[in-house]
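Researcher: Here's my situation. A collaborator sent me these components and asked whether they could plausibly form a single complex. I don't have experimental data yet, so a predicted model of the whole assembly would be a useful starting point for our discussion.
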Amino acid sequence: MVSFALLLCPFAVLSPVSALWPLPKSLQTGSGALRLASNFAIHVSVPNAPSDLLAAVQRTTSFIKNDKLERLVIGRGAADASALAHTKTLSALTVQLHSASQAKILSSIAEEARAPLSERDESYILTVPADGSAAVLSANSTLGLFRGLTTFNQLWYWSNGEIYTIEAPISIQDSPLYPYRGFMLDTARNFFPVADIQRTLDAMSWVKLNTLHWHVSDSQSFPLQVPGFTEVSEKGAYSSSSIYTPSDVNTIVQYAGQRGIDVLVEIDTPGHTAIISESHPEFVACAQARPWSSFANEPPAGQLRLASPDATKFTTDLLTAVAKMFPSSMLSTGGDEVNTNCYNQDPETQQALNASGKTLTEALDSFVQATHTAVKAQGKTPVVWEEMVLDYNVTLANDTIVMVWISSANAAAVAAKGFKFVHSASDYFYMDCGAGEWIGSDIDGNSWCDPFKTWQKSYSFDPTANLTEEEATLVLGGQHLLWTEQSGPSNLDSIVWPRAASGAEVFWSGSGMKVSAALPRLHDVAYRFIQRGVKAIPLQPEWCALRPGVCDLTA
Amino acid sequence: MVSFALLLCPFAVLSPVSALWPLPKSLQTGSGALRLASNFAIHVSVPNAPSDLLAAVQRTTSFIKNDKLERLVIGRGAADASALAHTKTLSALTVQLHSASQAKILSSIAEEARAPLSERDESYILTVPADGSAAVLSANSTLGLFRGLTTFNQLWYWSNGEIYTIEAPISIQDSPLYPYRGFMLDTARNFFPVADIQRTLDAMSWVKLNTLHWHVSDSQSFPLQVPGFTEVSEKGAYSSSSIYTPSDVNTIVQYAGQRGIDVLVEIDTPGHTAIISESHPEFVACAQARPWSSFANEPPAGQLRLASPDATKFTTDLLTAVAKMFPSSMLSTGGDEVNTNCYNQDPETQQALNASGKTLTEALDSFVQATHTAVKAQGKTPVVWEEMVLDYNVTLANDTIVMVWISSANAAAVAAKGFKFVHSASDYFYMDCGAGEWIGSDIDGNSWCDPFKTWQKSYSFDPTANLTEEEATLVLGGQHLLWTEQSGPSNLDSIVWPRAASGAEVFWSGSGMKVSAALPRLHDVAYRFIQRGVKAIPLQPEWCALRPGVCDLTA
């Protein structure tokens, strides 16, 4: 195969830069050129194919035509022209389910994308012959077909009107290493219009991320309009135009689902809830207490009165209503950064504790059990931040999912307690780090989690570091996270992309791959994203992007 | 005056947040409300008013109508409505020259903006009476009138269809503390289309920055098409579409001038010139030598053969041709990071040194004298980076302008040598710091100038620190700088704005003002920029922006 290709295509001895991201589990490529025929078409051979699969095929066709991604080499692929003139053309991609799967598929990509983590099947097989006969994409699920279409998209470069690969034939068998590959967006510190979230979902899908962890509310604002609780966003959103209505949520959830993405909503409790005091002052302790640094990690202070039966009922009812808005099998009740002093200084909380005879920790335990009972009653698995397990030893169901955020070093302790968890560590995946201090009047202040977490850093992450073999089975995956004290629509894309793609590969393909080998492909990701309207940033001077390896540390 | 206003406008006892940036030298405000009349107009009472003044008036009118900047307070100014119903309206702003100045003005804002630093007059006087009689803007120059129009723009908030101030009457006498207030953009590491530069010029003008220091070329690319030297960009630009043609340059220079901005172009020599080897290998030592770290501070290595008479003639001819493209009174020949090892290892350079009997330092001195002679022959003042003075003690004319970049601590040493200088220090004004390492294959690498330089940090800068009174007169001003290894059109706005406005105020209004007092006004800058299509970022959660001071460190 290789010798055949070399005869026809002398340029193939150059190291071609494949634009695949994340790398498939199994990838075999040749070194032959293959052009897409001008009448190239994708044929969907799936009985009763769901509409979101057909839409995905249309988007794929459109991207293939419009990406116009030139190879990132000197001359941008112009040297490929002569070989392309004499090569075969590919006229069709056939998309089909494995025969045994036809009866089992769910009604849509969206439905398959939001199935419980253990039930998802994202695997697919893709073959692109070099001889011009039809390429074939097959899978057990429409979700798997969608992932395969994303891969097929990435096979093609463009030069001077030709859409082509120089690596035919191509044979791929693929499935992700971890079922949870997410991105967390905080829409409470600053608000993001629906269109920004949709653009983010698009970009996520292009690198096979499958979960939007939506940190929708926090102490600063509550933009989610919850049926039965509309006063919370009416008083708690930044403005009437900075609200996600149930219709907006439905738009986002459907848009995500059609792109193979589940939306895991978080209502952070009992901390990070100051803004609820605008509509329900009776339920919030130490609301806007000063100095804020005595009562909270950042302004404003304010936490739900966890010992109050009324505040607990309000919270469980709110969570129940939120749960009905989101079809995911998961919902996060938060649980990070509970400030003890806030409760110690709150007369109502102290009175409630005295009345019940509970300690604060016991009251927290009861509060979380109540909220989780409500979440489970809606058929969902609760998700919590690591403190619930490590700091407060709250009674949690075995299937509770834990987000490890304070430090990657804490993963082992969470695993030791037997909980499934998602890597979300600030020392690898926090995208806001390194942007300086945002608290006012602090001239020499620095980012609390300085330095900036480069793509190289997150790419070097080992999901099973310091875990036993058994503990390693508790890793559900991981995610980058964007806390938005210093970001908004203006810098959403540029902070996130292409950096978050590094996590997408670690949790799909696995860790341990060399950053120097990944960088050329990541440049391709960035350039392709820009072509598609997502403002990814250059990771290096273009001079380096065009010369793989030459700007490495020891080059 | 104040008591009168209070009677009519009870809301005025709240602390209004003025959106002026930079703060005028002298500012007197009342606390009365004043609306713009629906037929508000700006009358230009300047004989033979230049067309760029008339265009600036049109832009001002358009911005006033379209900014729709709501006050950054809870309720966004809705509470102002009742008072506005009963207040006076302003129908006109009269724009005029001081009578003695009419004969002296130059032909346009552009021409006045590019006059030598010592000859510019940016002062103006602006009065806005509270009684509805015409506001008056007067100045000695059309450049001063332009600065005053920018200030007038910033006086107005918007709420529910009304354009208004709550601080009438307003009386301003203004002039800048320093004549050089710049922003440096590197268009060599990554390319920026003309439209991005124009948008940057717009934004610069809105905070009265007056110099674009255009670091147009570097070792990675040479995008400037120079008449007579077109081979340099033809071989040295990233692509044929990543070139600034003479027509592009003219567009940029004119666009800048019309906005009161001078364009100081830099052709960095003899270092940072590797890419010239693509068109003129004979003139470049150690071109792309490896390992790059032995020959340059970043890849690729390559420096002009400073000891070669032919390379020197090439350089002086190139600089002469570049000088003809730019009408500014200044031109930078660069001079930073000259790598000695590159020349020590270069046989041609060693041969030339032997032939001439010069040391490397003597050859550098001769080279710089030759290039500066060429620059001066074009009527321009040479500008250099600090190493020319501090490291190599090159023979420089007394009027040479020095950029202090390595450390703010080096300003005193430059001043001690009697040179005028521009603060460009990496420890205060480098906008790329804190974004992580961009060199490939460096997992734990960090930004060389970490941490991120926050706006608070640059705002705290003291331009005359450690200088004697006499040395302080050598300070021409200062600038923020964007080196673009990790930036491009995708993150230009978000890296620069509103942060670079901090320098704009320090070098217009002076230092020593409190960051806590500046922050609310800087929020206004960011919000206004976004309204105008410049993607400034949020400096804080909107919750903080709406509550001045409440998110301060000790609040």
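Model: Some features of this prediction you could bring to your collaborator: Confidence is low (pLDDT under 50) at residues 1-17 of chain A. Residues 517 and 549 of chain A are 8 Å apart (CA to CA).
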